Amino acid sequence: MRILGIESSCDETAVAIYELGQGILAESVASQIETHAKFGGVVPEIASREHLQVLPSLVDQVLVEGDCVWSDIDAIAVTSGPGLMGALLVGVTYARSVGLVNNIPVLPIHHMEGHLFAPGLSDAGLPEFPFISLLVSGGHTLLIRVDGLGQYKVVGQTIDDAAGECFDKAARVFSLPYPGGPEIAKLALLGDESRFKLPRPLLNKDNCNFSFSGLKTAVMYAAKGCDNFDDQAKADLAAATEIAIADVLVKKSLRACKKEGVKTLVIAGGVAANQTLRNMLTTESGRAGIDVLVPDLKYCTDNAAMIAYAGSLRFKEGVDISDDWDANPRWKLEDLTPK
Ligand code: KG4
Ligand code: ZN
Questions:
Q1: Is the Cβ atom of 299 under 6 angstroms away from ligand 1?
Q2: For 50, 55, 117, 206, which has the most beta carbons within 10 A of its beta carbon?
């Protein structure tokens, strides 16, 4: 069984082919980061236009690289939400058109379900259920208990900004371009995290929720209050910012595992590419007797391999392949769990 995955929910156009029992046959990601960087964030209209320009040739390229023709493809899995409406529509409309012409069923896939199951693309495969997943991206910060495909319980979430959003907004304090996460991480390598004391929001509250907007403000005030905000001060503050975000994410994730009595923790989403977070999580979960699974770096940020893989899981379950769905920019992960 071969599934062609298409991802176009934000600023990455991505295509991949996943074969059951084989893994990924071919994949490609075309990033629009350079286009949007000069605007300091993603411009939805420009994103849609670029997806439209790039997607057809990307699909052709991946089919060739995967040594496939359309008749080798059993299903098309496409991200149908959440995300930017125009961007989603490009992927969904394209998937539907080629599906219709080639008589291939099209499966709507939830972007975050793709991230949730991305660790299944590793050699070790998916861990046993249940596991806790820390989903940290530009738009989401969620702790989810996963008991199976489509069986999700939100254990914790942010009450304001997402962790990635905090990185992206804090980056402006350092005059760093979008996306801020990898840029702050790079700068932090040169810094001493102990020079600036930043808060750990909600850490003392006995729950698994997050708050990042106050941290972003604290970074701003720390910079303003610094007499000489030179290169070293910037690096020190970047290191303190990165550690503060990672510290809260790690502690709350371990708290979620403890509360739910779950022994496996998985991380996913763009922020999961952060090396400091990965290192801290590995060390601290080891101490707490929790197994932690970190996906390959390329499967943390947006990609189509995770969409094709989630599509294969949905296809195997024998989902109703009806045409009764549409792109849904506000699709909630909880909506996938039968009430
Ligand atoms: O999952 P993703 O690629 O797209 C969304 O669905 O949002 O996540 C993008 C987010 C951005 O906020 C970006 O700054 C952050 O992930 N990010 C990182 C790193 N790489 C990407 N944050 C911290 N460290 C990184 N290395
Ligand atoms: Zn994402």
A1: no
A2: 117
